[in-house]
């Protein structure tokens, strides 16, 4: 049963196009949540809380064993991804000690940096830049229907909370209507700009001047550069290769200006990528697609790997939320028990363990913290394969449904 609060959240998008909210929340079954009461190992927990527990020595042992540098190295299970595609960043950088910071509390913003997800590694893109493997999305549940309505302080608060919880990779877009709120949240969170990874996207359905749209996005965000600028979807081109190629050339010009460190695409199929690769001077750094076990897109991810294009996955929790119940429920529950996490972390780990960036979102601080537990385990290659195989028994698309025939799983 969904609670009233869950019912009021527009996070089911069945029947709607794109990553805009809509649909009936009652379609969606809440996934079971397994909280391991005995070992509430929160990587952001504060030492003071730990010392108050009778199992403090156990925690300390676990902490030391878990976070020594050699263990960090083993936390990036990218064996399923060709080596040329990724290179793990060094998680124990000068910032990473923040995982142990004890100074930050909900009320203390001044003087102390928010804690960071130092244990969440990054993926090295084909242009040498690094993108954190876990991102916080400003679309779907955070989408603002009227971009011209006054700034929404509640939305700003939610995003500030996400940043303070350690989500430094922020996935925005022109069409989410909330670039202003994202910009304000970035300022209020007090995290130095260079520590954040900010993406925005030009509308994928509207025909418009790219440079003007980009400058407007920067203005709304209050930033002088973004880490990543994407073409949200290929649909504006109406199948015209020339239009796709021209738009990509516009992004290349923006990249050359230094105002977008990486450029890429979203919702592109192989044919769309092939079209721009014919004339591209820069290979797209990434293709952001709906990706979960019930929508694996045939050979698309292999095509990305072949061309050095990274993949980022939106809707990574689909199998446990909007597409549940499904054939994977038992497997997710079993693996969640094995690793002492919730099915959500198993769903995220299945994405990340393939060298794919996962984009999620939540209004719940508790959930956001829970998802950081992905840093504490990894799936075995066999488990990844099992999920992939069982996932093929069901097909489900949650976004951009009006662009595909009901039996088209490309
Ligand atoms: N490029 C595109 O076309 C495109 C399309 C879609 C999305 N995106 C990007 O990807 C981001 C993430 O997409 P997404 O929202 O589909 O991600 P998701 O991770 O699949 O779903 C997140 C949603 O699920 C809910 N949720 C999380 N854990 C749950 C649980 N255990 N049980 C029940 N509900 C749970 C969250 O709501 P609570 O607040 O209740 O936790 C949140 O609304 C978007 O915000 C956007 O930035 C891009």
From TrEMBL:
Residues forming coiled coils: none
Keyword Oxidoreductase attributed: yes
Domain of life the protein comes from: Eukaryota
Residue numbers spanned by region Disordered: 1-25
Domain NADP-dependent oxidoreductase: 137-390
Keywords assigned: NADP, Oxidoreductase
Presence of keyword Oxidoreductase: yes
GO MF, one annotated term: oxidoreductase activity, acting on the CH-OH group of donors, NAD or NADP as acceptor
Family: Belongs to the aldo/keto reductase family.
Name under which the protein is recorded: Related to 2,5-diketo-D-gluconic acid reductase A
Species of origin: Phialocephala subalpina
């Amino acid at each position: 049963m969904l609670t009233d609060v869950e019912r009021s959240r527009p996070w089911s998008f069945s029947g709607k196009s794109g990553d805009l909210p809509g649909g009936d929340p009652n379609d969606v079954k809440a996934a079971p949540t397994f909280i391991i009461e005995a070992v509430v190992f929160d990587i952001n927990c504060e030492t003071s809380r730990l010392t108050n527990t009778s199992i403090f020595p156990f925690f300390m042992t676990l902490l030391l064993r878990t976070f020594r540098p050699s263990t960090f190295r083993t936390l990036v299970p990218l064996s399923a991804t060709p080596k040329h595609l990724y290179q793990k960043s060094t998680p124990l950088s000068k910032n990473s000690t923040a995982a142990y910071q004890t100074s930050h509390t909900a009320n203390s913003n001044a003087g102390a940096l928010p804690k960071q997800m130092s244990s969440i590694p990054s993926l090295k893109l084909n242009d040498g830049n690094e993108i954190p493997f876990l991102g916080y999305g400003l679309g779907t549940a955070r989408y603002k229907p009227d971009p011209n309505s006054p700034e929404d302080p509640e939305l700003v608060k939610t995003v500030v909370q996400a940043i303070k919880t350690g989500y430094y990779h922020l996935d925005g877009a022109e069409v989410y209507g909330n670039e202003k709120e994202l910009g304000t949240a970035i300022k209020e969170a007090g995290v130095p700009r260079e520590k954040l990874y900010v993406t925005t996207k030009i509308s994928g359905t509207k025909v418009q001047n790219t440079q003007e749209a980009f400058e407007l996005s920067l203005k709304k965000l209050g930033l002088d550069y973004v880490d990543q600028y994407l073409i949200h979807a290929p649909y504006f081109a109406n199948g015209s290769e020339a239009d796709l190629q021209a738009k990509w050339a516009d992004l290349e010009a923006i990249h050359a200006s230094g105002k977008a460190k990486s450029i890429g695409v979203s919702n592109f199929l192989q044919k769309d990528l092939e079209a721009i690769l014919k004339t591209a001077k820069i290979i797209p750094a990434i293709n952001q697609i709906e990706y979960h076990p019930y929508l694996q897109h045939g050979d698309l991810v292999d095509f990305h790997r072949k061309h050095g294009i990274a993949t980022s996955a939106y809707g990574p929790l689909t199998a446990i939320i909007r597409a549940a119940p499904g054939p994977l429920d038992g497997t997710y529950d079993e693996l969640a028990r094995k690793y002492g996490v919730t099915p959500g972390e198993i769903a995220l780990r299945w994405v990340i363990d393939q060298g794919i960036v996962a984009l999620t979102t939540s209004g719940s601080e508790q959930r956001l913290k829970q998802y950081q537990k992905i840093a504490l385990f990894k799936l075995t290659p066999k488990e990844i394969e099992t999920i992939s195989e069982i996932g093929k028994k069901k097909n489900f698309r949650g976004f951009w449904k009006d662009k595909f025939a009901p039996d088209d799983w490309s």
